[in-house]
Every structure is written in structure tokens, then in C-alpha cells.
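[[Encoded backbone]]
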Amino acid sequence: RRIHAVVGARAAESTWFTLDAATGKPLGRTAFPFKKMDDPAPDGKGALYAPARYDNLLLKLDSRTLAEQARWPIDCVQVVAVEYQASHDRILIGCRGDAPRFIALDARSGRQLASIPIGKGIDGMAVDEKRGLILTSNGGDASLTVIRQEGPDSYRLLGNVQTRPQARTMQIDERDGRVYLVTADATFGAPDADGKAPAPSFHPDSFVVLGYKPQ
């Protein structure tokens, strides 16, 4: 068993550090020629599906060696969130960009099966297998996008639930379908002369956990 830690954005490459899961001993490091790679999704069968955010790519990697097995271009900008769905052998993807999308792929071929608009600033994705729901947490416009999965190849947008600004990190309780998001009050400074906005300044003692349950 191994743990892969993905280092944050760099100018030209992303580095993965591999550790022994039992001992914590470092086993090696692997560099990929991409500025930013987000968390990969394991399929439980020896593969990882890893997004290259700014290159609009999804890589299929050997979960032990990190050798590349396949590479698929994704028809959206900023591939951020990836989940593997074992029940249908599907890869579920959330993209940011100017036109944020949910995309479903066939895990065997990489063929696109669905493309649905979602809220802005996606960070998390949750799959509620019991109720056939897929949810994306979108901190940019403070929304929770809800998608109905009607079959392996059929997806339908149900709508968007208002949350709170910056509520984007999400976990699901698979027993009852409740999802939990976290956020805090913040002040957003003005952009600099180059148009780059500073990181938000979060207010003390304002951290909250938001809970939502399916109807």
C-alpha cells in the first residue's frame, strides 16, 4: 500500500511524493510536466485518474509506479475535481473556467458521455449512490449543484442550492446522503495593478460547518 502526496502549483511541473502507507518511509518522487495537478481518483483496481488542471487533461496512471497508461483531453477548462464511480465504471469530472461543467467519461475508453453546466468555483464532488445524485460544491457563486444520474450514460441537472461564499470543501455521509461544507466570513481585497486579486482574509471565530440533506 502506498500514499501519493501531490505538491501544489509550480511554474513548470508537479511533483508527487510516494510514501509507504504502513511505515511512512519515503519511496520516491515523480515529476509531471504540468503546472498544477489536483487530487487523483483511485479505481481500486490499480489505476489512478489524475487531472492536469491548466492543461485540460486527465491521465490514467499505474497506482504503484505512477507510469502513464492513458491520456485523455477534456472538453472544458481547469479540470479540478475527479471521482471514479465503480458501480458504472465511470469517471466524473468537475471543471472551473469561464463555463464550468460537469463531465462524465467511460473509464475504459475515455469517451465523453455527458456535459452539464454547474456553479462557479467547483472544488468538491460527492456521489450519492443510493439516491442516484451527484453534487458539486461551488465556492465561487456559493452554490451546490445537484445532478440526477438516471443510468450509466444518462445525467440530468436538477438545480442549484444556495450555500455561502467560499463553501467549497465537501464530504458526504453515504449512509443518509447528507453533505457537509465548511466556510468562514472573509474580506476580499481589491485587485492589484495587474488585476490579480489577493487571497481573502478570513475573520476570527467565524468558521462554520454547513449541512444539507436530500429531500
About this structure: The chain has no helices and 20 strands.
